[in-house]
Task: inverse folding
């Protein structure tokens, strides 16, 4: 059997963000797109199941994000009867995380989404154009022991935008 | 900029969507005359007032839908997904232009 392809991030030069915000290249996460299945995560929301983040990215479509083994375990437990399908999109997508108290203000420079807590609370998932790149945005605040949650967004986009998208997000962080 | 109410995503900037134009029922290919095809493909009503039109939520849920727009005031109302049985545009909802991208 052929070896699994080695993952290479499309972000070849991950220069750290400016100021108080942090950018992280999470592209190596396993990403699986599920269509037409029956998953109890509504469109526009996400839910952590063990190590896997289940994102309701379209009205009948979900994206599973996490370590390869954990994602495979979730997929094997799905009801894929009927016209359901799963596609591994690990190598076709990138994932970048933007974290920091001013993450929303930084994003407002590049994106028309209402990022207020009322419209996009923690756990929200929206399709959006960010710096002209069509991507899925998931708000997944970072919680560490004994501290207040820090605002964090994850962006899932086509890998061919890799370095440009990183640089564009980095530019947004410049003044914070 | 218009604030377009997507039935799935809620209000979104029109820059996040693609305009699909006026909504017309597609004539039956078996019986349509060349004049009817020409009318369907090229002629628009362009009313001064309420107009049923199609939009594609290209950055959001990636679904086509219809809504009504007032061409004088820019007011938008009654967004509806294809196949839905409610709202004013339901009788034409299965004939959305362009289909799914
Ligand atoms: Zn939408």
Result:
């Amino acid at each position: 059997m052929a070896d699994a392809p080695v993952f290479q991030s499309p972000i070849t030069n991950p220069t750290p963000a400016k100021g108080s915000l942090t950018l992280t290249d999470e592209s190596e996460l396993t990403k699986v797109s599920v269509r037409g299945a029956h998953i109890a995560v509504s469109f526009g929301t996400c839910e952590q199941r063990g190590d896997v983040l289940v994102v309701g990215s379209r009205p009948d479509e979900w994206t599973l994000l996490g370590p390869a083994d954990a994602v495979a375990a979730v997929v094997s437990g799905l009801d894929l009867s009927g016209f359901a399908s799963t596609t591994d999109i690990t190598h076709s997508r990138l994932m970048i995380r933007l974290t920091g108290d001013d993450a929303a203000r930084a994003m407002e420079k590049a994106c028309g989404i209402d990022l207020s807590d009322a419209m996009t609370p923690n756990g929200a998932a929206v399709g959006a154009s960010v710096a002209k790149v069509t991507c899925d945005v998931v708000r997944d605040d970072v919680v560490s022991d004994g501290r207040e949650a820090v605002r964090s967004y994850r962006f899932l986009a086509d890998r061919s935008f890799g370095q440009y998208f990183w640089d564009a997000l980095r530019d947004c962080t410049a003044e914070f | 900029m218009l604030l377009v109410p997507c039935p799935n995503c809620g209000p979104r900037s029109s820059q996040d969507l693609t305009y699909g134009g006026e909504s017309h029922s597609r004539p039956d290919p078996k019986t349509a005359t060349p004049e009817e095809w020409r009318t369907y493909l090229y002629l628009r009503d362009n009313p001064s007032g309420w107009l049923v039109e199609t939009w594609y939520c290209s950055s959001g849920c990636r679904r086509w839908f219809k809504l009504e727009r007032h061409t004088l005031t820019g007011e938008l109302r009654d967004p509806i997904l294809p196949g839905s049985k409610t709202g004013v545009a339901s009788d034409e909802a299965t004939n959305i232009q362009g289909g799914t991208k």
Notes: Residues 69 and 76 of chain B are 5 Å apart (CA to CA). Residues 3-100 of chain B form a domain with the Folate-binding fold fold (CATH 3.30.2270.10). Chain B has one domain: 3-100. The mean pLDDT of chain B is 84.
